[in-house]
Give the backbone structure.
Amino acid sequence: LYQIKTDKPTFFVPNIDPSLQYDPQFLNSLAADVKQRYQNYLQSAQLQQITEEDWRDTRLEDALRAWRRNPNSRSAEEQVISLSTEFGMMERAITILENRLLENENWAQEDTSRLITYYGWEGLQGRAELFLEKLWEVYQSQKVIDLKNLAVKRLGLFGENFERRWRQRELKLAPNDYVLLLNYTRSIESQENWPEMKENLRELLNMRPQTDSLYAYTIQRSIYYESPDSTLALVEEFPTQAYDQLTPFASNIALMYGFNANNYAQALFWAGNAPSFDRRLELFWISQLNLDALYKAKALDYLANNTDNAQIRSFVGTNLFYQGFTDEAYRILYPLFQQEEEQGFAADTLLRNEIGFLSYPQKKDFFYQYPEFFDDDQVDGLQRQYRENEGIRGQVFGEYRDDNFNNTFARGGISVQFGNRLRNTHLLKTEYLVFADDNPQTNETLQYQGLGYEYTHRSENQQLEFRAGSSVLFGQEDFIPEGLISVSLSRDSVFTSLQLTGGSELTSSSIQNDYYQAQLQLYRQDYWMKGNVLTTISANGKYYTNDVLRYGSFGRLYLDLMESNWKIRPLAEIGYSDATENYLTGIPYYTPDQYFSQGIGLDLQFRKPNTFDYRTQLTAEILGKHERRDGFFATGRVQLEHKFRNF
């Protein structure tokens, strides 16, 4: 239906079909005729008009009086409904129809249809919803549900609470209806409604345990709305035949088992069912179960399928190393270093650190097998260690002594040491010896020169050292033999050594009289109070072939309180020595007579670097002493060591 309004007596519309063309004069004549007929109609209507006082339509009033006289008459009631509708009094018509439905359980389809129609005409959707509630209170039957469905269809009733309420009522009428329960459950889907949804889904699964999709739907929603622990508990309620449905969520389930429940066996099971899963996680879980053989097989298989992937090679090799398959790990990782692709991977850090922790022998063997694992700094360090530990070492040494008896003693020489200084070394030396004294009978300078050999053995842990050696020095008419046997043990903060030496007593009188000596020395060094206090104790006994025994002991205490390269250590010492025969003049040699001394002083030390593997060390000390015969006196000592590592 089209309505067109214009202020002109005529109007024209476009002619869409050109074949239907009319003469303009004909059209104007036709329009004038229509206009004239309309004017005649208006004049006729004016002649027939009468006032309201002359006539009034009383049909509705008459119908109402008839209905009141006979309220049970359906025809009278229908007449009122019809006339109320005609006169636009829809409230009366709607009320009559509502009462008819409330008072009579046998509904006519015409009544329900008209009521819904009238609601729609008047826009009374809210009233329609309230009336449906009244009907449910009265009947609670399927016909109310049907009327509600009709109202929803024709009036567009909607709302979350409205839908939920009526679906619950449907379920109340048919509690075992699978479709109704499923639709209701889906309609209330939300985080806050999940507990109710979960119970409904359990009930649905009990109704149809062979469902082909509901297990998957249930787990999917549980992943969205519930904690991992609750989701896993739900999975464990399902029969194993339902697991195929859960394949799309197998990765999620595996991660929950692995990281939330720490159930690595189940995590591996679900990871194996996942369409695609991070195999690195699988390897991690296998390692947590200590399945070493399986771990190795899986890791090698993973690498076999990704041989050109440097990241995977680094991952597999690194983790094989941590699982204890070190040889296999080295074999796998080595191509990375050969192709210089290790930068940025965990394998690079692993190997650098691992090499740093190796001992020198391990590092050397490792380098022979896998040289590319070593970076430039590590190669330089290994070469330096090789020179220090196994390179041929040359040494120039010298010693000079002069005492109160004018016994002058000097010796010096050159030595060459070769072998592995961590295990076994051999030392060859040639030396020159000069000494003299003021003995009137032998007032001459004695000179000797000769060769010597020394063997040193160290245990693998470097705690035990054994030394043995001898030398022979030849003079003009005789020779001087010397021998050495020494054992030392270092452990934690304790060092102990025992040394036996023997040979000629190096004074001219002793040489002339063929006096020989053998000396046994014991030395012990201990650190106390977290290394802040150092004590040293030594004891010795020396036997001369002219049947003289010399013996004594000596002790020192240092306060080692500084940690820098430069150290100043306060020290105190005490010593006692005596002999069975006293030669205080130094002829043929010196022996003490109940010599008891005490002293205090300072010890100065510079070491660079400040470790036992120093290159330069300067040691100096000065002490003030007292002895019962000699009174007060001072002693001092200076010692310098430097290692030339580049030669």
About this structure: The longest strand covers residues 566-579. The chain has a mean pLDDT of 86. The CA atoms of residues 500 and 520 lie 5 Å apart.
